[in-house]
Structures are given as C-alpha cells and as structure tokens.
C-alpha cells in the first residue's frame, strides 16, 4: 500500500503491504498513518530527495520499498508468537544538508519512529550519529537505532563508532583496497590524477588512494590532486582539461551522483582517453554519459553487480526490473536488501529472547534490537552479509567490474537502459575485503 501525505513537512509515507510485489494500493488518512502507524513497524528514510542529488535518494527509496515488500509478502515481522507486523518506509527529505537531516530526525522522533536509515552523505551520517547518541543518553526509554547503507567515511566505524550505528556498506578503505587489487595488475597505468568532492568522504578517498598507491604501486606517479565543492560544479570542463593536460593515464575518484556524471561527461567532451577507477561509476547516469569511450576504461567497485555470475543472482535482478520496469528506475543495491533482511532478523530475535517492552505486539527496544543486529548473518541471491560486532561494520564480498556493451561476454544486463553494463573482473571474499578497526565502543 502507499500513503502520500504532508503534515507540515515534505514527507512521503510508503507502506509495502502484504501483497508485496503485487504493487501499491489506495491512499489512507495521513493523520492515521503518521499517528498510529496502522500497526506497522516504521523505518524512517532520511535522505536527499530533492535537488541535484535527488535521484540518489529516490534510488534508495525504491530499494527499501522493494525490500519491505518482500518482507511483507511473507507475512511481515514477528514481534510476538503468532503476531506479525508489516514494515513501512517513511520518507524525510534532508536536502543533502546536515542541519536539514537533524530537523528530519526530530520530525521522525515526533512521529514516534525509532528506526532511522540514511547513507548518501558521510557528513550527514556523522551529524546523525552524534545527535542520536545524545538523544539516547537523554531519553533511554525512547532510544533510536541508525542503519547506514552508504555513508562510507571510515571514521564512522572507527573513532566515531557508536553502539546505535550500523554500517551495511563497505567503507572507503575497503572499497579502495578492492580497486587497488585490480589497479595493481594494470601495467598500462603509470600515472594517475586524484579528484574528489571536498567533504569528509571525498577527502578520505584521496587520502587512502595516496596511501595504497604507495604500498601497491609505488611506480605510479600522482600527477594531480584536487578537491572540488560538492554539488556546486555545473561545468567540469576546467577540471578535466587539467586532467588531460597532466598526462594522467587514469583518474581515481569517489565522486557520486551528478558530480560523477558531469565529470565523466566532460572527460568525454575533451577526449580524455584514460581510465576511471571509481566507487560509483556503474550507474546513476554515468555509463550513458561517457558512452563508448568508457568501454574497458570505467572501472567500479561495489558489493554486488547485476552481472555477478550465477543464475540465482540474475533471477534476483530480473525480479527487481520487473517490479521497476522503467529504465530510469534501475539500480539495485544488494546491501540495502540485505540490510532490511538483517533488521527483520534482529527484531524477531530480540522479540524471542526478551519479549517486547510495553505489550506483546510492541516493537522491542532499540538496545535489544542492536544486540541482536550485532549477530546478523543474512544471505540473498548468493551474497552473504554478516555484521562485525566490534565496530558494527558489515562484512561481505566485494566485486570490481569494468564497463562494456550489453551482450558482450559476461554482460547480459545493461544499466538504466544505456546499452552498457559492467563485467565482473574480480570478486574478493569477505575475509579478503575485511579491514582492521580502531573502534572503542561504549555499550549501554
């Protein structure tokens, strides 16, 4: 079912009803949905849903909706023997700004929601972690849990780790190590240019690129390095002109959203023929923007790709495309599917072991769900994710893939109807992708 409402804030409430993949049903009262939840377990999505990066938030929303539909299609989440409740996704627009995200967090709290999801900005995630820590200390009877699906600044599960925060994506150092496993063997690349968005994540990517290049490829020269304002550059031609003039044979970037699309489009316009080693070059407009020039040259790292080998994986992706047939709605994030599965598993485990505070069908408290989530171990379509309790950093395989035409060997699926897909070059198992941590977690 779907509910669309506006109670003084720009929010959308979506309930994935028991019909699951059958689709949405009619609207109901916004007051009823917000105030009572209609018995559902509500997960607040605090994300950029407008502005230049709005498409990234919408992609997350579709993924969480689909994951919720799958949970609800099997009857929902069991919170007491014989009592199951559906999962709802509630949208709050952060506009990509930490202060707006904090306002959205307060709005979710006012609406009685204690499960928060966010990811498309490490700066926003850091602000939410700090605010949730303070809130949970002040109000132990109304504690909040934060599920992070994409904010990958390593500090969030190291120096700033929190009992209330769980990260389901590989952090930047893990992703960079996976990219370097391919770059290490790429003898054609002898010089690189580093470029990124000027905030905590972009800075972390460039810092780790320098460190790992020195370790893995000391023969490679860094011929340029640049940080640019995030979401404010409309024309990347001056940047890529410098990249081309530097003689760089490859670019390493953590850019995402419009900042990546505009960067690769400008590179195509100036005729840059080098490679792009990227964190997010596999979707959200980037393949279509670079076109044939990216074949064999745009390399991306992810927890999973649609062209990951295996019939089970292919069927899972085909089911997503059937649910969202518009090519513009493509971009399945496996980690988000696994995150929702882990949440459902943890709630049911917490309900079984401790009962639900406040009534037989009440959601277990955030502290008990967190204890259960520390033991999360879930699998879908051949991809397994387990949570590391010491720092709340998910451990899972990582893949590195290269752009190619759809229909080429290993590329049965394209991206967003572009005619280009990504062929998996290398798969690192979870143990190979794992990195040490410096977390000293304070537990309630």
From TrEMBL:
InterPro entries in UniProt: BCAA_transport (IPR051010), Leu-bd (IPR028081), Peripla_BP_I (IPR028082), TAT_signal (IPR006311)
Coiled coil: none
Leucine-binding protein domain ranges (all copies): 41-407
Family: Belongs to the leucine-binding protein family.
Domain of life: Bacteria
Protein name as it appears in the record: ABC transporter permease
Record keywords: Signal
Matches recorded under PROSITE patterns: TAT
Keyword Disulfide bond tagged: no
């Amino acid at each position: 079912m779907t509910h669309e409402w506006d109670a003084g804030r720009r929010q959308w409430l979506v309930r994935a009803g028991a019909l699951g993949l059958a689709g949405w049903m009619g609207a109901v009262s916004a007051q009823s949905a917000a105030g009572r939840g209609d018995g559902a377990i509500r997960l607040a999505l605090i994300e950029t849903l407008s502005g230049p990066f709005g498409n990234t938030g919408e992609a997350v929303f579709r993924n969480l909706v689909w994951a919720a539909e799958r949970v609800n299609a099997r009857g929902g989440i069991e919170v007491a023997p014989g009592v199951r409740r559906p999962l709802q996704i509630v949208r709050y627009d952060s506009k990509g700004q930490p202060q707006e995200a904090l306002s959205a967090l307060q709005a979710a709290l006012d609406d009685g929601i204690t499960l928060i999801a966010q990811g498309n900005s490490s700066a926003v995630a850091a602000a939410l972690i700090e605010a949730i820590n303070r809130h949970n200390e002040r109000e132990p009877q109304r504690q909040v849990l934060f599920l992070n699906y994409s904010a990958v600044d390593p500090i969030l599960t190291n120096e700033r780790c929190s009992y209330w925060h769980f990260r389901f994506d590989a952090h930047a150092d893990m992703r960079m190590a996976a990219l370097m496993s391919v770059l290490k063997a790429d003898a054609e690349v002898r010089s690189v240019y580093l470029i990124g968005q000027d905030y905590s994540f972009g800075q972390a990517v460039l810092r780790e690129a320098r460190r790992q290049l020195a370790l893995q490829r000391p023969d490679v020269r860094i011929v340029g390095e640049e940080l640019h304002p995030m979401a404010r550059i409309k024309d990347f031609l001056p940047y890529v002109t410098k990249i081309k003039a530097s003689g760089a044979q490859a670019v390493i970037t953590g850019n995402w959203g419009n900042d990546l699309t505009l960067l690769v489009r400008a590179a195509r316009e100036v005729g840059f023929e080098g490679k792009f080693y990227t964190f997010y070059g596999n979707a959200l407009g980037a393949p279509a923007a670079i076109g044939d020039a990216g074949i064999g040259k745009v390399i991306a790292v992810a927890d999973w790709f649609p062209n990951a080998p295996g019939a089970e994986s292919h069927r899972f992706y085909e089911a997503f495309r059937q649910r969202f047939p518009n090519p513009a709605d493509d971009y399945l994030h496996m980690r988000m599917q696994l995150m929702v599965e882990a949440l459902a598993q943890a709630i049911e485990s917490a309900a079984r072991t401790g009962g639900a505070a406040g009534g037989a069908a009440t959601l277990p408290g955030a502290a008990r769900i967190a204890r259960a989530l520390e033991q999360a171990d879930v699998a879908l379509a051949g991809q397994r994710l387990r949570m590391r309790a010491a720092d709340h950093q998910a451990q899972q395989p990582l893949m590195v893939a290269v752009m190619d035409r759809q229909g080429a060997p290993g590329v049965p699926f394209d991206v967003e109807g572009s005619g280009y897909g990504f062929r998996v070059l290398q798969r690192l198992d979870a143990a190979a992708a794992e990195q040490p941590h410096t977390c000293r977690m304070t537990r309630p």
